[in-house]
Amino acid sequence: MTIDKEGPKYDRIAIIGGGPAGLAAAKALAYEPINFKTIDLYERRDKLGGLWYHHGDKTKLHPSVPSVNQYSREMTSEGALKEDIYTSAIYKYMETNIVYPIMEYNQVYFPRNSRIYPLRQSVLDYIEEYIKSMPESVNFNLNSNIISVEKVNDVWQVKVEDEEVKEYDAVVIANGHFNTPYIPDVPGLKEWNEHLSNTISHSKYYQSPNDYKNKTVLVIGNAASGVDLSTQISTVAKKVYVSVRDKSKLTLKNSLIDYIGMVEEYNHTDKSVITRDGETVNGIDSVIFCTGYFYSFPFLKLDNILTDGRQVQNIYKQIFNIQDPSISFVALLKNFLPMPVSEYQSSLIARVYSGRYKLPNEEEMKEDYEIEMIKKGKGSPFHDFSFPKDIDYCEHLKSLIETQNCLQSGLIGPLWTKEKIYYRSQTKIQKEERLRDLIEHVKQLRKEGKDFSLLN
User: Fold this and answer.
1) If DSSP codes are grouped into helix, strand and coil, which group holds residue 159?
2) Which of 170, 213, 437, 445 is 20 to 30 A away from residue 133, measured at CA?
């Protein structure tokens, strides 16, 4: 690492994670006009693509029940392979929930004849096209599970499983936040799991609605994954219940599903649950928690300082650790557009690490963080960038880069045209219309005795 009048220059960079966020970071670093000595990207699986690489046997993995913090660890069945242990939360019948024109990176495009809501394989194909646009200065390290990342004497020591420790000046964390499931500790749940093995799961481990054919299924949660899974399963299940916080706020219901209140007690003896409003539901064969995930960085020695699982703390502009900006994060946000936002974040990271952009001092960054936290709130809301926050955030990062006259060279995220902003503004309405069509499609499939299939 060298210091000049602009900012510190970091020569050796490690990127943890080979999904859309890590790839954006790699490209941004490689596009810098000031060359880095080393750009090493580590991916623990045998292929790049992150969340969108659908591979492995999910039946070999089982969640900790309950799973109430970022330290909860999965259990593996005998014979589980590495691809099973590191499987993705993506499932068999999956399409995106945003239209492809607003998913794209800068100047890398989906085929114009793509489905408006691309299938998972189409997204992976698109990511592979993005990889082709990457300069050769990026070193991709597959099958490289990171055991530890620790700073010793101003140098980041990165330990890869079954390999020697490697040293870096800066580390970019892009490992995603769909790894450690949240399963609440509800009375009777632990006992249920002990007596009725493999009947409690989480959306991370969901694969296909056919796994629930002719079963009575309880889905906990009615956000994006809860809606999608319950809709798919209602095609072939004997009965589907969905537990929601407030039934009065349901705007679109599936008549194949019974909606119940929050579950406050589980009873394994008769496979029943009791809700907050006193309703009892009996004969449940399977419970699927669609309750989200914790932020988790198990390889980081500073994990307990950086996050409580709900929020990444002491972070400037959702990217840089305030005490030590040589560690940064990409795509911590929620309810946002991952690929475009990742490029904008990575554009700033690259300029900071090349020394072209100088960050404010620690006191100023801390003040900015505290103002942001007051404005948004602590915990999960701190990372919520629902429209129009995500687009405003991209423009803000772009303006920061512009203030130090380093916008013209290097990578930058995609231009937010009026057309793209309109598409983004319509996301909620479009998703409701898509769900309405899907529910009618599912009803017809069930009437005809057919298995689930996606809309055309």
Assistant:
1) strand
2) 170
